[in-house]
Specification:
The protein is of the alpha/beta class. It has 15 helices and 15 strands. The longest helix is centred in the middle third of the chain and has 22 residues. The N terminus is likely disordered.
Amino acid sequence: MRKLAPPGKPRQNNDCMSLPTLSSGRRPANAALAFMPEGYSTQHGKLMGRQSATEGFLRAMIRHAGVDRHVAYALAPQAMASFAPMIRALGGRAPVSVIAPDNIAALGEIGTLLLPQPNIGAQAGLRALARAERAFSITGITHTLSSRAVMAGVADLVSQPLQDWDAVVCTSHSARAMMTGLLAAEEDRLAQRLGASRFTRPRLPVIPLGIDTASFVFPPAMRAQWRASIGAGPDDFVLLHHGRVSWHAKAHHWPMLAALGRVSARMAPGRRLHLLFVGWSSNEGQEAALRAQAAAICPNVTLHRAGGLQPERRPGIWAAADAFTLLADNIQETFGLAVVEAMAAGLPVLVSDWDGFRDTVRDGQDGFRIPSLMAAPGTAPDLAMAHGAGAIDYDHFLAATTQLVAIDIAATTAALEKLVLDAPARRAMGGRRRPAP
């Protein structure tokens, strides 16, 4: 691994300068990854969707991009030594180059910088400082957009030296609406305050997150093994919830438990309903509340808890399940990668009619989108003020806003009952690629 030399230094031993050219004279397409190791790894207990997405992207780039080398732009000096080992661990065999944080102009030899976040303003400022505005483009991507820091960073893009060829990929139409609203509000503020009239917005294409579908095809033996390990018989129904236990920042489990309790009372004698709840807990109190409420609301349902699973154990949970659910009711949920993973695993999905789920789940075809209601915009300006002023932290802000959302429990019950009792419909919705049990 070599550190790329900055412009103006001798070109010998400079990896970027040795890039091959096509017959047309153009270099092969490539992009440098803005790199911090924790942003591209799922090898830790408190797994978030953004880490799964970025690691999946890196795997896909290694496998399918066909680049002549893998290039990182280190966001901090201590990250420089971590890139090559990660590339090798994921199967990358091409040469590896790392650009130092203070050498951003070297990205001109690559053409594009990819950041795993929407706030691309700082890098645009460094690019302008290096007088390299026309040398390379900058592309970011949305994940959670509801925190004060992220919203401020997006608004700041209006006054940063962005170019027409920069972009922030929006993973859902709801994410693009949020981005557009934040940018428009800041443009209006600067127009009224300073008389500003010329603004350069980044492009905002909607491109959903992708996954490696081959990783979600499982042999029948794996399904049988995992179901046996949780005591699920061949006629039992296993509902998988894959997401952290966090009623304030992910999904309140009450609607799911209420629907499970109602459906379990209607099942044939001898057939059991299992809830396989996979994901780490925000704290011990929420873990205890989940267990206590499950025992009280759906006592006939067998609850199986698994925290942050190691990568080698994750395929089993998908293989064991008959359907997947995520009734998100939180403003931080912009896409929902686990839902796409569930569909790739051949599972019908039971989700809320919420944000990115509207782009990925076709109601009645891939599963069910449950009606979800939220108080109208402007209902709780006190919450916005409290969060903006720092009077409440992000967790408490999410907890308060989720109280303004309601999931239709009756519709959830009807949809779950359809999945449990109608095996042909269940297979038609999700199990087309699965062998019949």
